[in-house]
Every structure is written in structure tokens, then in C-alpha cells.
Amino acid sequence: MAAAELTPVETAIETIVTVFVSHAGKEGRTGTLTAAAFQELLRLQLPNVMKDFPSLEEQMRALDASADQELTFDEFWRLMGELAQALMKDREGRKK
Ligand SMILES: [Ca+2]
Known about the structure:
Oligomer: single chain
Order of helices and strands: HEHHEH
Low-confidence stretches: none
Mean pLDDT: 91
CATH architecture of the domain at 30-95: Orthogonal Bundle
CATH superfamily of the domain at 30-95: EF-hand
Bound molecules: calcium ion
Distance between the termini: 42 Å
């Protein structure tokens, strides 16, 4: 990409990718999150929005479509979609 300044949305996407990559590189297979790495990512990066979500084990099981105990970026991305949808529902609820 050119050196042009990124928009807020572009920055948000890049931030998510960067966070995933840095946590995925810590242990287990390259480019995937182990349960421990996933837990650390949630604790450090999503402490506020994850309060009402199910336990780590349930969350891991729900996202780990291939059931290999590690999350690929595709598997992890589903959580971003769920969190965005929860945020949207929250907004719609507040409007009523
Ligand atoms: Ca997996």
C-alpha cells in the first residue's frame, strides 16, 4: 500500500491483523492462536466487550471450526463479526 495516511476504518482493520499476527506468533503453529494465546489476546485487547461472552472454553470451541485446538485468522475473524453485530444490536436497542 502507498504511504498515504490510512483512514480510521483502514487503521482499524490493520490493527486487528497486527494484533492477531503478534499473538499468533507466540506459540503453537505459525499463524494460529493456541487457547492460551487466544486467552491472552482477549485479556489484553478485548477486556470490555468480552465481559458478557461465554467462557474461554466455549468461545474457543465455537470458533475452532476445524477442531484442532488452534484458531486460524479465518476462525478468529468470526469473533470480530460477532462483536460487531453485538455492538450493532446494542445501538439498535438503545434507539427504542
Ligand atoms: Ca482451528
